[in-house]
Structure formats: structure tokens, C-alpha cells
Design a protein that fits this description.
The complex is a heterodimer of chains A (281) and B (257). By secondary structure, chain A is mainly β. In chain A, 10% of the residues lie in helices and 42% in strands. Chain A folds into two domains: 173 residues, D-amino Acid Aminotransferase, Chain A, domain 1 (2-Layer Sandwich); 83 residues, OB fold (Dihydrolipoamide Acetyltransferase, E2P), CATH 2.40.50. Classes of the chains: A mainly beta (281), B alpha+beta (257).
Chain lengths: 281, 257
């Protein structure tokens, strides 16, 4: 293994579990709704996205972690935007001026060596032994062994994205999606068409969502306040939105639906950027 | 910022004062380099080794021999009780040397004051005189010149008290030097070469512009102080809460590491 710890290492990925489970062989921790980050402080401080892009370009405030993460360390984690007492993917993607926190959940390199071949519980010990300054923007993920179902219920009640289950004996598989890591998701996500919009008396826009442009409504959701669709002149055919929801009712409607981001003719956007007509043409 | 009355004989003009200039220096704070938090100042007594609040402290005037004369609350001027700018006399503007001038303010008439304000502006303008006035500003008694500007507006210039001018400065120029006619000629020519109308735009504040550019350049490193820490505390609290809720359920908390 001749990987350079200063270079990007693709993060290990997990599969979605069929159902939450309990097991003493597994570690369970909160799955945070943010951007995956490989944080390397070898030679120089770097934060790579899941695909190896420079995350510091988007979150220059996190350059302060170069003083927090010990030199000669590579950790795997999640960058979250903290808004109103909870993580906000929207705030993160739109780069709203809210605090960012990096939550480290794996230690890939420290003490001058790679730990990829060591079992997760050993890497967890390396992670816990890192001298990380308290009260900083870098936090070590906390979790439990055994109680996956209870943690998942608690995480769902706290309106978090879900729980990650990690097999204690598993090595780290860079760039692989393997079943040694499993996701318990508290919300479902799907893409929908916007079949109609209405302006409420409050001045906010309400969108009707459907499986097909002319299909029956599955949900009505509030568009984010900073989205203005008036320039579209009612032409919504190409606009699709990703919605997060808890479950479907028997009638097929979405419960607890919330817009996450939009896409139109291959152009992607999010809460912070209102779709513009020229983007859509 | 300052609402008061401009008193001119029997006439009182309700007015408001606005600073005529933007702050030239750029606002800056000291922050802790590590976390970006703004530093806080504490008053401490080095002898009693206690932190002091405003009720624990008194103003005192140092004497040359090291003693202090403590002031009492009666010694303090009555703060802004008297919001009156009282015109004392009128003088030609050129009689008031620029050495006395401090901060400049726009004087804006308030309801009921527009007519006498206009009368005062136009009359001073036509007779070529400016008003010397006494005022209270931030609980300090001040002298001021009130004068017409642009024929329609009153401007107020806060002044130093003439008695505070250091007189020894007046004797700095030495009289015992011989200057030749040629030297005088040369000096006059030099001044004439550099003479022109005063155009304010010719004198930009280059130092300020340089600093603004520097701030612009450093803008990507701008950060919100303290809040990231608060956020990470909340992340930790949330994770701790979730773990506790499981520990409660399982009774002993067994298996929670």
C-alpha cells in the first residue's frame, strides 16, 4: 500500500439496510445530512469532497481546522451546516452564512501509518486518541454498540437523516460501496414534477408535486422563500425537485414532505438559487 | 444624533445635528487569533485582585506627586440636560483661525424651525458673518461656529477652547535667518507653479483605499466568531442526548460505549 496520505483517498460507502437492526458486532452512529469529507493534514491541510474536489473552496471557514486536526492525520467525516439547532443540508448546499462543523467518524492515517487494513474498532480507537481541541469546529462522532434500532428511533425523533451501522471487524474499503456499512434512513427521497404552483396570501409559493407532469398531486410543499418562479411564466415542464419525506399514505401522498433541491434539463440547483428561465431553456 | 435647540436671541430653532463626515478610519476590533472571538476587556484591581464593575469605580484626577483627587458625582457635568446651542456673538469667518476647528456637523431644522432657520442662513450669508455659539455635546461644554454653507444650509463646527491652545508653538519659527532676494523669488515661483483651484476630488484617501482593497482580498477568510464552537457544542449535546435515551431504555446503559 503506497498511498500518499496527502492525496485524495475515495471514501468508503455503505448500502441502505433493508431494516434497522441490533447487533453487538456493529457500531451505530448518527448519519449526518451534509457533505462527505476526507480531511487530511499531511504536509498541507486539505478537505476533499466525496469525489476529490477541494471543499475548502466552498467552506473557507473550515480552513481553521488546520489548527485543530493534528498534523500527520487523515480522517473521514461529514461537513454539516448548523442552522437553528440542527444540521441543514439546504444551508450547506446554498452556502448560507451559518456555522459549519466537521464531524469525524473514521481515522484512516495517523502515527505515521495507514489504518485501512485494521478493523473499524481499532480505527475508532485511533480516532478517539487524537488530541483534538475541545470546543472547536471539529467533533468526533459518538455512537453505541448493539442498539441500532433504539438509536435509529431516537435519531428519527430528532429529525436527523438516520443512522450508520458499521461492522466492528471490517477494514476500510476506499471508494467501495459495501455491506459492512449500512444506512438506516429516516426519510425517503425522490424526484417529482411540479405540476402546479399557487401564491398563498402570505406571499409564499406553494408547489403541487406529482409523479408525472399531469399526474395527480402527491404533495403540496412550500417553496423556499428565496425562490421566485415568476420569470418562468408558468413553464414548469422541465423542472424537477428532490423531496424528502417520511413515508407515503395509502393514497400515495407524501407525509412530512420537504424540498431538498431542484434540477432542470441537466442543470442542478438548490434552495439558494431560484431557477431562472435562461437556465431552463 | 443630537436633537436640540439653536437659540438666537428670543428665537429658538429646533434642530438636529448630523456628522458631516463619514468615519475616516475603518472600524476594527481585536479578536483572539485562534478562535476569532472578539476580546473582552475587564477592569481589575491589581492590589485587591478583584474584577471591577462600573459601580466599584470612581474617576480621580492624578496629581504630580502621585496622589489622586477623587471626583464625586456632583463634579460631573449634567449630561445633556441642556440641549441648547446658544449663539453668543457674530464674527467674520476669517477672524476664526482654522486651528480651533474640530468635527463638522450638518444642522437640520426640525418641525416649526424651518422659517427661522432660513432667516438665519440668509441673513448671515448677506452680512458675511458667522455665529459663535456655546453648546453641550456628550456632556461636555463646547464652543462652536455656526455658519451658512451653500447659501441654504447651516453647518456647525465644534471648536477647541482658545485657552487650550499651546502657546509655546507660536515661537517655533526662528527670526534670525538671512534670506536673499533670489531665494524669495525662487520660493514664489515654486508656489506659483503649484497653485491651482482647490478640487476636493484631487485628494483621495489612498491609505483607506489600500486598506479596503486588502480587506476585500482577505474576505474569503472572513469567519463568524464563536458560533462554530457553539454549533459543535450542540452537535455533541445532540449525540449525547441520543446515547442517553438509549441508556435509559436499556436500564443499565450496558453496551453504550
Amino acid at each position: 500500500m503506497n498511498r500518499d496520505p496527502a492525496e485524495f483517498i475515495p471514501p468508503m460507502l455503505g448500502v441502505t439496510a433493508k431494516a434497522p437492526f441490533d447487533s453487538e458486532d456493529w457500531w451505530f452512529e448518527v448519519k449526518w445530512d451534509g457533505f462527505r469529507a476526507i480531511i487530511s493534514n499531511v504536509r498541507e491541510f486539505k478537505m476533499f469532497s466525496r469525489r476529490g474536489d477541494n471543499l475548502l473552496k466552498w467552506f473557507p471557514d473550515l480552513a481553521q481546522l488546520s489548527e485543530i486536526l493534528p498534523r500527520g492525520t487523515v480522517v473521514d467525516g461529514e461537513v454539516v451546516a448548523w442552522d437553528n439547532g440542527g444540521p441543514s443540508f439546504t444551508a450547506l448546499q446554498s452556502r448560507w452564512p451559518v456555522p459549519h462543523v466537521a464531524i469525524a467518524f473514521d481515522c484512516l492515517f495517523s502515527e505515521g501509518q495507514w489504518h485501512l487494513h485494521e478493523p473499524f474498532h481499532r480505527r475508532r480507537e485511533y480516532l478517539e486518541n487524537l488530541p483534538i481541541q475541545a470546543h472547536s469546529a471539529l467533533v468526533v462522532s459518538q455512537g453505541v454498540t448493539g442498539h441500532g434500532i433504539d438509536l435509529f428511533r431516537a435519531a428519527r425523533a430528532a429529525q436527523l437523516e438516520g443512522v450508520m451501522a458499521k461492522l466492528h471487524s471490517s477494514r476500510y474499503w476506499p471508494g467501495k460501496r459495501v455491506e459492512y456499512w449500512q444506512k438506516f434512513l429516516s426519510m425517503r427521497r425522490d424526484w417529482f414534477f411540479v405540476s402546479r404552483i399557487a401564491k398563498l396570501s402570505t406571499g409564499h409559493w406553494q408547489w403541487g408535486l406529482a409523479e408525472d407532469p399531469d399526474g395527480p398531486l402527491v404533495s403540496k410543499v412550500m417553496a423556499p422563500a428565496d425562490w421566485n418562479l415568476e420569470p418562468l411564466g408558468g413553464n414548469l415542464r422541465a423542472l424537477r425537485v428532490e423531496v424528502e419525506y417520511r413515508e407515503r399514505t395509502k393514497g400515495g401522498r407524501l407525509r412530512h414532505a420537504r424540498i431538498r433541491r431542484w434540477r432542470s434539463d441537466g442543470v442542478e440547483g438548490n434552495h439558494g438559487e431560484a431557477p431562472q428561465p435562461d437556465r431552463l431553456s | 444624533m443630537y436633537k436640540g435647540v439653536l437659540g438666537f436671541g428670543l428665537v429658538s430653532i429646533p434642530i438636529q445635528l448630523y456628522k458631516a463626515f463619514d468615519e475616516e478610519r475603518i472600524e476594527m476590533h481585536w479578536v483572539h487569533t485562534v478562535c476569532g472571538t472578539r476580546v473582552r476587556y475587564q477592569k481589575i484591581c491589581p492590589v485587591c485582585q478583584v474584577t471591577l464593575s462600573s459601580k466599584d469605580i470612581t474617576k480621580a484626577v492624578p496629581l504630580p506627586d502621585g496622589r489622586y483627587v477623587p471626583l464625586t458625582s456632583e463634579s460631573e457635568p449634567i449630561a445633556d440636560l441642556d440641549h441648547t446651542i446658544t449663539i453668543l456673538n457674530f464674527h467674520p469667518l476669517q477672524d476664526v483661525d482654522p486651528v480651533f476647528y474640530q468635527q463638522s456637523y450638518w444642522v437640520k431644522p426640525q418641525a416649526g424651525g424651518h422659517k427661522p432657520y432660513r432667516l438665519l442662513v440668509e441673513t448671515m450669508d448677506s452680512v458675511g458673518q458667522v455665529a459663535l455659539a456655546q453648546m453641550m455635546l456628550r456632556s461636555k461644554s463646547r464652543l462652536a461656529v455656526v455658519r451658512p454653507f451653500n447659501h441654504t444650509v447651516l453647518m456647525l463646527h465644534g471648536m477647541h477652547y482658545p485657552e487650550s491652545l499651546r502657546t509655546e508653538g507660536a515661537e517655533i519659527g526662528s527670526p534670525s535667518v538671512a534670506i536673499s532676494g533670489a531665494e524669495r523669488e525662487m520660493a514664489i515661483r515654486l508656489i506659483q507653479q503649484m497653485t491651482g483651484p482647490f478640487i476636493p476630488e484631487q485628494y483621495p484617501n489612498q491609505e483607506r483605499q489600500r486598506l479596503l482593497q486588502e480587506i476585500e482580498r482577505l474576505m474569503p477568510s472572513a469567519r463568524t466568531p464563536e458560533l462554530p464552537n457553539q454549533a459543535s457544542e450542540e452537535v455533541l449535546d445532540l449525540m449525547a442526548q441520543l446515547r442517553e435515551s438509549i441508556a435509559r431504555k436499556t436500564g443499565s446503559g450496558q453496551g453504550v460505549s
